[in-house]
Every structure is written in structure tokens, then in C-alpha cells.
Amino acid sequence: MSEDKNVVARYTTAARINHWITAVSLILLALSGMALFHPSLFFLTNLFGGGQATRAIHPWIGVVLAISFLGLFFRFFTLNFWKREDTVWMKNLGKVINNNEEGLPELGKYNAGQKLVFWGQSILILLLFGSGIVLWDVYFEDYTTIDQKRLAAVVHALCAIGAILIWIVHVYAAIWVKGTLRAMTRGSVTRGWSWKHHRKWFRQEVKKS
Amino acid sequence: MATMQSLDIRRRSASTEAPPQVRQSAIQVAKLIDVSKCIGCKACQAACLEWNDLKAPIGYTDGTYDNPTDLTPTSWTVMRFTEYERGDDLEWLIRKDGCMHCDDPGCLKACPAPGAIVQYTNGIVDFVSENCIGCGYCVKGCPFNVPRISKVDRKAYKCTLCVDRVSVGQAPACAKVCPTQAIYFGSKEDMIVHAEHRIADLKSRGFQKSGLYNPPGVGGTHVMYVLHHADQPSLYAGLPDDPRISPMVGFWKGVMKPLSLAAIAFAGVFGFLHYITKGPNEVSDTDERKADEMAKGKGA
Ligand code: HEM
Ligand code: SF4
Ligand code: SF4
After folding, report:
1. Relative to the CA of A57, which ligand 1 atom is closest?
2. Which of A58, A97, A154, A178 to mutate to test binding with chain B, by most B CBs within 10 Å of its CB?
3. Cα(A58) to centroid(ligand 1), Å
4. What is the mean pLDDT of residues A59-68?
5. B136 CA: nearest ligand 1 atom
6. CATH code, A74
7. Complex confidence, ipTM
8. DSSP code per residue over B216-264
9. Is the pLDDT of residue A2 over 70?
């Protein structure tokens, strides 16, 4: 991979496995959760072996997600602190969306959009985990009042929608910005991609080699 | 399978299709529980277990007459005893607790499983166990804290108002067995008229605040109480003074559902339109060349 001198290593194998466990569990959670959220999506319970099974398995996938996301969090959080150039980048979001990155500040490993996805999902998954435990009657029914459970249901559904929206942005960005997906499938990106999108990071990587 | 014909279904949980409309004849039924006549003998509790063929496990006593101490998946009705001191008087308020068969049932509104909760055209709210997924949302929807999820099969249970008896012209088992006739059953209209007689009688005997409990916040109920202190329902072991479906449940099961789907659909459509109008963000040959130069110059 990174032995090839035309590419730049971006993710270790462990980081990629960690990412894909998170991704698969998030998608399964979104499907099993949405099945219970809206009647017109109840048919999705068939994917999980019926209503009872969907209800039973969803929180366990949640546990997998929570642990797996915690791994991603500790891998990446230091690279996601907000920098001055991120504010400049955000102010020029219109240019970015129009595929015109001329004159934007050089960026480290992540741009402001990626950082917002990171922090957004961190907060939402924390809230989803907390409210999910309150809703998990099989084990935790006796620890909260009915009113607290009602609040948990509202928080859980709102955060789920938020997390799904962020997920759509995240996936779309990976499709839109060509050359990104291989970072998570193969662990490396091209030099051109690094130079174009994360020049500061590219400089550092070049210096290291 | 629901106990009544599908023609007799007025509402069905988590269903987007309209229920059948042709049969218009249904009479609204109601059970009237006259708290002032109840002696707390629990014959109704026993009859409920008997008719529904349920066996409650042997429990424990917490030192009061409440036994079992709460509704359970097998105890669909429980007498709740309250000692109320009014001046020098000690009043023993005994309320038969159980599902109120709300006209606007919060349980049904909250339930995510299609057809797990139905409301028949006669007003009875019934849980159709085979469709129940055990999520406990009905517990959050109910303003009266009635449904209980079984630890054995993870399904929700509550009073059916003996819909199987009612559908063949019988009164509920509890009404049939009550030795003091504190439980009446009939059309809701008749029950209201009957309650008025009882309330007039109670007033003549000094209970000036007696009245009918048929709370409008849930559209009225198909189980109603005659209370001697209708101005303070909460005296009766916490009967809600003004029950209504929690606004949190209203929001969760109301505007939030369509708005959320719309937001998700919008995000998808926006992405698609962006891609076909702005196109992908690609790395050009110039970018590659400049990157190579930088790599050779070691990051200059
Ligand atoms: C992080 C740990 C999580 C736990 C412990 C958890 C737990 C739960 C529980 C217990 C329920 C109630 C239904 C059931 O018992 O299965 C539920 C519902 C739901 N969950 Fe989760 N969940 C988690 C994460 C997520 C995530 C990441 C999403 C979406 C991306 C999600 C979406 C939903 C949705 C949409 C519902 C249905 C809400 C409704 O009916 O309004 N959950 N969750
Ligand atoms: S537990 Fe209650 S809300 Fe959930 S499916 Fe069963 S009846 Fe419906
Ligand atoms: S009392 Fe509770 S369980 Fe009974 S119909 Fe009303 S909301 Fe449903």
C-alpha cells in the first residue's frame, strides 16, 4: 500500500476495521430503528426476523456501535480540534460546494466538514446510548419513571434522525469527492488527492517519508 | 387474531390505511364503576383471572389490602385502597384500577406495531398479542399507567373489557360477579344516565362534590367511575385529575414522524441534485503534478 510511492497512507488496517464495524452497526441501527419509528417503514423488521426480533436485537447492535465508536473517538479526536483555518473554510462553504477550492487555507488531516461530522456523531451517539438504555425495558425498565422514558423516546428519535442526516452528508461527501473512498477501503489516498484537499497534512507526510 | 370482526375496527395501531367504514351501527359501550358502592371484596379480581384463564403467581403483601400491589401481566384489575381522613371521618376509598378504554387511546397512538392495538367501533381498546413486539411504547403512551409487559413472552397485557364476552352480548366478567352491583355495563349513554341517578343520591346524602369521572382530555373513557369526591380524583390512589396523552408522546408520534422522513428525503434529493448539477470533485492532472513536485521537494 504505502510502499507504493505514489500514494499516501491514511488509515491503518485496525482503524479501517474499526470504521467498518461502526458503519455496519450504524446502518443496521438506522434500519431497525426506523422500522419502529414510522409505520410505513415497519416492513424493515423483516430484515431482522420480525418485530419481536428487531426490538430485541436493536439495543445490542447499539452496544456494538457504542464500543466501536468509542474506539474511533480515541483514534481521531486529537486530529479534530477546531482550528482557525476551519472557520475560514466554513465561511467559504459556498465555494467548496461549487467545486472551487481556490484560495482556501491549507488543511490538516481533516476539513471543517469532517470535523463537524466527527463531533456531531460523537454527541449524538452519546445521547442515543444514554436514551437507548432508558428505553431498554428488558434490563432497565425499573430504573426510570414513565415520564423519563417518554423524554428518552423523544430524545432517542430526534438524535437518530440527526445521526442519519449526518450519515447521509458523510456518505455523500465520500461519493462526491473522488478518491476519498479508497482511504477507507485500501487505507491510502493518492498524492494528488492529498495535495488538493489536505495540503498541510500532505506536507507533513512528505516530510516524514 | 382480533376478537371482533375486522368490520368492527375503528382504529388500528401503526397503520396507514383507513379502517373499514361500511358498518355504522355500533353502539358505544361503557363500564360504570360506582366507587361508593364497592366493598373491596375483590370478587371482580377473581372473576377476571377466572374468565381470562390467567394464573397470577403467589405474591407478597406489603401490609395494605392492595393485593397484588400493582397491575401485572396476569392481573388486569387491582383494587386500590386509600384511607382518607376528612375532618373526623375516616373514609375508605376503594378504586378498581385497570384499563380505562380511552376514546383517544395513548397506548394505540404510541404503538409501532401494525395491528398490535385496535380500538373497536364500540369503543373497546384491545391488545392483539400476536402482533405485539414487546417494545413498551404503549406504557409510555398510556396516561393511566396500565399496560404491563410480560417477562415471560415480552408482550403487553391489560384489561380487554372482556371483548370476547361483549361481542356475544354478555357483560364483562367483573360486572357479572360484583355482589353489590358496583359495576354496571351497557351503552355509554345509559351508563351516563345511570351515573346521574347515583350522583343525585350521593349528593342527597352529603357528598356534594360527587360526580362522574369521564375525563375529556382523552376524549372520554369507556370505563367510568362514580366518585364521591369527583373534584379530587387523585385522592383515589392517584387517579389522574386531568389525564391527557403526554405532549412528549404527541410530538413523538405526531409532527415528528412526517418531518423526519421529509428531512431525510430532502437530504437524499439534495445530494443527488448536487451531484448532477455540480458534478464530482475530481483531482486533476495538474493537481497530481503539483503534488509530485511537492513530494520531490520534500514539502517545500
Ligand atoms: C447507541 C446505542 C443504542 C441503544 C442502546 C439503542 C436502544 C434503543 C431501544 C431500546 C429502542 C426501543 C426499541 C427497542 O427496544 O428495540 C430504540 C429505538 C430506536 N432507535 Fe436506538 N439505540 C441505540 C442507537 C441507535 C442509533 C445509532 C440509531 C440511528 C442511527 C437508533 C435509532 C433508533 C430509532 C429510529 C428508534 C425508534 C424510535 C422511535 O420509535 O421513535 N438507535 N433504540
Ligand atoms: S409493547 Fe405495546 S406498544 Fe409495543 S408492540 Fe406491544 S402493544 Fe404495541
Ligand atoms: S387506559 Fe391506557 S391502556 Fe387503557 S386505553 Fe387508555 S391509554 Fe390504552
Report:
1. 16
2. A154
3. 6
4. 98
5. 15
6. 1.20.950.20
7. 0.94
8. GGGT-BSEEEEETTTT-GGGTTT--SS----HHHHHHHTTHHHHHHHHH
9. no
Of B30, B31, B36, B32, whose CA–CA distance to B236 is shortest?
B36
The CA–CA distances, whole Å, from B34 to A98, B37, B97 equal 72, 6, 12
Gap between the Cα atoms of A12 and A3, Å rounded: 13
State how beta strands B223-227 and B211-213 pair.
antiparallel
Is pLDDT of B2 > 80? no
Q: What predicted TM-score, i.e. pTM, was given to this entire model? A: 0.94
The average pLDDT across B76-98 equals 95
CB under 8 Å to A169, separation ≥6 — which residues?
Answer: A113, A117, B267, B271
Q: Quick check: is A204 in a domain?
A: no
Domain boundaries in chain B?
9-253, 256-296
For cell 371482580, what's the residue? B44
Does residue A207 lie within any of the structural domains? no
Average pLDDT, stretch A84-104?
93
Mean of the pLDDT values across residues B219-242?
97
Residue carrying C-alpha cell 428525503: B265
Atom 2, ligand 2: which residue's CA is nearest? B138
Query: B9 by DSSP, 3-state: which?
Result: strand
| DSSP-assigned letter for residue B169 | T
A133/chain B closest Cα distance in angstroms: 13
Query: Does residue A10's CB lie within 6 angstroms of at least one atom of ligand 1?
Result: no
Report the percent of chain B where pLDDT is more than 90: 88
| Number of domains present in the structure of chain A | 1
- Range of lowest pLDDT (A177-186, B34-43, B56-65, B93-102): B56-65
pLDDT at A170 over 70: yes
Ligand 2 contact, B116 CB (< 6 A): yes
Domain containing residue A87? 13-177
CATH number for B9-253 (one of 1.10.760.10, 3.30.70.20, 3.90.1150.10, 3.40.190.10): it is: 3.30.70.20
**Pick from A146, A177, A207: CB nearest B140:** A146
* Beta bridge partner(s), residue B29: B187
Q: Please calculate the CA angle A25-A27-A30 and round it to the nearest 5 degrees.
A: 110
A21 occurs within a structural domain: yes
The confidence score (pLDDT) of residue B298 equals 59
* Per-residue model confidence (pLDDT) at position A5: 67
Q: Is B219 left (phi over 0), alpha (psi -120 to 50) or beta?
A: left
